[in-house]
Amino acid sequence: MRAEVTTERRGLVPEDLVHFRWVEEIACSPDGRVVAYTVKQPAADLQGYTGAVCLHRLDGSAAMAVGHGDDGLASSLAWSRDGARLAYVWQAGTRTEVRVLDPDGRLHRIPVDGGPAELDWHPDGRRLACTRWVRQPEADRPLTTLEAARPTVRVIRRLRYKRDGIGFVHDRYQQICVLDLESHTLAQVTDGECDYSQPAWSRAGDRLAFIGMAREQNTELGQGQLFVCRYPGGRPERVSPDWRGACRSPQWSGDDRHIAFAGHTEPAPTDRRVFFHVWLCDLARRTVRDLTAALDQTVGNYAIGDQRPGLVNVTVRWPGDGPEIYFLATEQGATHLFSVRDDGAPPRRLVDGHRVVFAYSPSAAGPVAYAYADPSTIGDVCVWEQGATRRLTDLNPWLRARRLATPEPYHYPGVDGTPVHAWVVRPIGFAEGRAYPTIVYVHCSMFSWDFSLEHQSYAQAGFVVAYFNQRGTTAGYGQAWTRCTEGHQGEQDYEEIMLGVDDLVRRPFVDGARLGVTGGSCGGFMTNWIVGHTDRFKAAVTQRSITNYVSKFGTSDIGPEGAIRETGAAPWEDLAAMWRQSPIAYVDRVRTPLLILHSDEDYRTPIEQAEQLFAALRWLGREVEFVWFEGESHGLSTGGRPINRIERIRRILGWFETHLGTESTPIETQP
Length: 671
Hints:
By secondary structure, this protein is mainly β. Helix content is about 15%, strand content about 35%. It contains ten helices and 39 strands. Strands 31, 32, 33, 34, 35, 36, 37, 38 and 39 form a nine-stranded mixed beta sheet that branches. The protein has a four-stranded antiparallel beta sheet with strand order 1-2-3-4, with no helix packed on it. The chain starts with about 20 loop residues before the first strand and ends in a 5-residue tail after the last strand.
């Protein structure tokens, strides 16, 4: 049963997740008259989510919902070129459909297996390009001669054979297909042992552009390359054979002579620390030009929050026949909406401020729909037009019955005096003259102005929360700042965090004797590193963490390229360097009570990382507890089952409440 929403003026607690409604995707019709968006919410049993498509007419008429009452989730919104019909993917359990909404309100349902996604309309309005998972023909028969029984084996021949959040993909590949809406037949455009994604029809409809990515991360094709294929009957061809970087999100110009895309020129192997720019490819000359070279930021939303799964929108959008190309860029803890022209003019910032724009959709007619979040807004839809913005939705009005803590930004002097961007959140019911237990949240990604249920829950429980974007932060502070820790994990980034702690405890309301530290993923790495190098914290919680770079190399879905780029070496090249940058090397120094949270279907930082840490600490007789989440991936905190997301925050809170306490104390009693 879902708890009743009350008008009690309190802060947020983990269980409030049951009331949340999230914007997931957004699509503005080409004529700029209607905005479609998906809204997700926890299912009644808290074991999953339900969601629907909503339509909002910009002329002010009432919004409407499509698909309410169905127990499933909508995704991959796509308007036909004339704006008359809306297509999307509907998934309920193992059943998937492509649905098409006609102008008269009729809804057509077309069953399509293989997980269809990334829909794009052909100009004729009768076909849709999409991606779907296709199994490869069995390369060899089982070696047994007994036909009645087959061995249970996986035959693996490619490096990237599993993907976090998807599972084992060793025998299936993502292919481009074309769905005929009249005959309901699928024509497969690509094949072979390569994953293809992000299909985009040319304006004339005679060609498809898409991204091809091999499973070997140490090759150029393994980074993702731009392909074009004539349709029907053509074969995929590399657009720029000399390109040595990565490509994403192809978009055709109005005359089909150019393709804009997000990309970088760093040779393989690379990781997400390399910035993407907006590039323009001249198809006839096979030349490329960087349109955002003057912007020392990366294309995409790299904001860290706990409301949206994954890093999203490393994309460009080029609507209509005009010169304007749209994209998101991450800046100083925020994500902003930009545009750039194909004539080389500097990029324009259209939407900025202390917020995270996490989805956007420009129309050919001019209006741009976007979805944003900030510390007081879980996520709502707006429309930008000719410099003015208006808000279209109010999806979580119940939040106004809660007291929200406001993050306070500041800077402190880091290594060599370099200013470091930081935030502090005071507890709900904060009173001057008192000192509070404090949780330091660490990372090696990027903290942001996104909404955080987790931080709000800590504030409600009586904790100060602080977090810093020290050097090594993935985006928002320039390419040099992001890459300066490569090959030096746990060195200046650790030093800079501890300088931040020194600065933090100078505030009279921070109880320096009751500090806790936590972080997830590479923030889990940093938590492990911190407790192996200082006893300053009374308690720690490490989440989905990196413990041992040597073993992560061969067990993570991004292990080879990630481990090499982070540590600067492969195990057989410099084992000592990789081990020196692994927190497990310092486990005998850990005296801080440690809670370990990990998921058994985490293929990004496999659970063996947690098992190593727990076994070593338990062997050494240290205070340690291991919470193993079943059936969850690396994205538990942002997209796991609602009941497990709630339990995760409750476990962290319980650990800190036990070891730090929640009561404030008069400042004059502090040592």
